[in-house]
Write a structure and sequence with these properties.
Strand 5, helix 8 (198-210) and strand 6 form a beta-alpha-beta unit. Helix 1 (5-24) crosses helix 7, helix 3 runs antiparallel to helix 6 (152-165) and helix 4 runs parallel beside helix 5 (127-139). The chain has 17 helices and 19 strands. The protein is α/β, with parallel strands linked by helices and 511 residues long.
Length: 511
């Protein structure tokens, strides 16, 4: 029996309250407990990998190779990295302090936010749901995960297997369509992490603003590729076409369009044609290495881009039954064409001609800030100019996609391409509130230093306070309290010794 909107809302409110009760119980606080849950997540991925591969293949006809590379192993490596550093990341840090807090303890404690909502998407249905979960678990939060309803088989895989391995009080999978996501967003969370389109990202942000809930929005955008004539074109074309063809272009950081001169364009197309034949044969549709598009709606949107958007130089073959579009390169594309107005998210790669790097930079800066910027050049000055004069979520020189596999780099957007970042320690930090703590005592010396703050106010007190609060770059400031105590101790010894000598001298004179 279908539930009414009111019943669904009540169910979600109850789920959220149970999660909050679990968090408030302190269950997620111990580091060893978090480590245990991360190990359980890894165990689930290892023991159910065959089911995971089958689910993703059902949704996207993605090859086993890509599923392990971009989904299963990707998350397992993130877990391994997190387990190696979780104790270090979770430790209370002791920042520097000024003269005014000489005798105080200054700390930064890592507090979990509480109950976190993670909304996944369909293009990497396991990775996008579980990768942020790793950071949320490590930070000590309870989590509600909403996988995409479009990747139905993977959503079912997660909902069936997740409760068998993970703590069922602290971690939950919620399935359903847009209406259920809408009801889910009406609840009050302590943090929301969303991956998907900019359009839906704005809706999530609006819902979060009702309760002033902090968010991370991992969105998309048109990630440009600049190529000049200094590159090794065979290698450059391989790296660009792989970035475009993996998951059939349904990747938020896939190369979206190329900026190059007509001369470079001709060389690129020549190499791309050879490479596609080498990878997928004479008929790419028969290759087991090319994924399919997620839905008829998405397929039809992309097919429309093949008409009236420049000229097809390579590819352009389609099959609605298979939701298949061959890897396609378009030339003679204008920046006003429809294909240049939204993220493509498919195996179509338009080329726009420019005269030089400065024109390319001007073009990029005239548009919304991209999630990724790809620069193909061996000219260090050109590379530096792009990195200095453009703004993007991330940048990668002479390759595509691979920056997201470097766990020590933050991954995230800027402006329309997103808010916040994650991966590695940045995932842990995303789900952690840095709580600053000043811990004072009743030290008489410390009180004498700060007593001038109390009324009645005088100019003398103001002068003394300004002197006390003045910022000074003293490298050994953190050791100053120890040195002062040591100095006071030595002074006390000297005074006591002097007093004893005076006493002995006095006693001798009496004799």
């Amino acid at each position: 029996m279908a539930l009414s909107d009111k019943q669904v809302s009540l169910n979600y409110a109850d789920l959220l309250q149970r999660s909050r009760d679990a968090f408030d119980s302190g269950k997620t606080r111990p580091i060893e407990w978090r480590i245990g849950q991360l190990k359980q997540l890894a165990r689930m991925l290892r023991e159910t990998s065959a089911d995971a591969v089958a689910a993703v293949a059902s949704d996207l006809r993605k090859n086993k190779f890509e599923t392990f590379l971009t989904e299963i192993d990707y998350i397992l490596e993130e877990i391994t990295h997190t387990l190696a550093h979780i104790k270090e990341w979770s430790a209370t840090s002791k920042p520097s302090k000024g003269l005014a807090n000489l005798f105080d303890s200054v700390e930064i404690r890592n507090d979990p936010y509480g109950v976190v909502l993670i909304i996944g998407t369909w293009n990497y249905p396991i990775q996008i749901s579980l990768l942020p979960l790793v950071g949320a678990i490590a930070a000590g939060n309870c989590v509600i995960i909403k996988p995409s309803e479009m990747s139905m088989a993977t959503s079912k895989y997660l909902s069936e297997n997740f409760p068998k391995y993970m703590d069922t009080e602290c971690y939950h999978i919620v399935t359903g369509g847009i209406e259920k996501t809408t009801e889910l967003l009406k609840q009050r969370y302590d943090y929301i992490f969303y991956t998907g389109s900019t359009t839906v990202g704005k809706i999530v942000r609006d819902a979060a603003n009702v309760h002033l809930t902090p968010v991370t929005l991992e969105l998309g955008g048109k990630s440009p590729v600049y190529i000049d004539n200094t590159v090794d074109m065979t290698m450059a074309a391989k790296r660009i076409m792989w970035g475009k063809c993996v998951n059939s272009g349904q990747t938020c950081i896939a190369p979206d369009y190329i900026l190059c001169t007509p001369e470079v364009q001709d060389k690129f197309i020549e190499e791309a044609r050879k490479i596609l034949k080498e990878w997928y044969g004479e008929n790419p549709e028969m290759s087991a290495d090319l994924a399919r598009l997620i839905s008829d709606k998405h397929y039809n949107r992309l097919v429309n881009f093949l008409n009236g958007n420049g000229k097809i130089a390579i590819g352009g073959n389609v099959n609605p039954k298979e939701k298949y579009i061959s890897p396609t390169i378009l030339i003679d594309v204008k920046q006003t064409d429809p294909i240049m107005q939204e993220e493509i998210f498919g195996p179509i790669l338009p080329i726009i001609n420019i005269n030089d790097a400065n024109e390319a930079i001007k073009f990029i800066k005239s548009r919304e800030k991209p999630l990724a910027l790809y620069i193909f050049s061996q000219n260090k000055e050109i590379i530096s100019t792009f990195l200095n004069k453009t703004s993007s979520g991330n940048a990668l020189v002479n390759d595509t996609i691979l920056h997201c596999a470097v766990e020590t780099l933050p991954f995230g957007g800027v402006g329309h391409s997103g808010i916040g970042a994650y991966h590695g320690k940045y995932s842990y930090d995303t789900f952690t509130h840095k709580k600053g703590c000043l811990i004072r005592n009743y030290n008489k010396v410390a009180e004498s230093l700060s007593q001038n703050r109390f009324p009645p106010y005088t100019d003398k007190k103001l002068t003394l306070l300004r002197l006390l609060l003045k910022k000074r770059n003293i490298p050994f400031m953190k050791y100053l309290p120890t040195l002062l105590i040591f100095g006071l101790g030595m002074l006390t010894i000297v005074i006591v010794q002097a007093a004893l000598k005076e006493f002995e001298y006095t006693e001798e004179r009496k004799v």
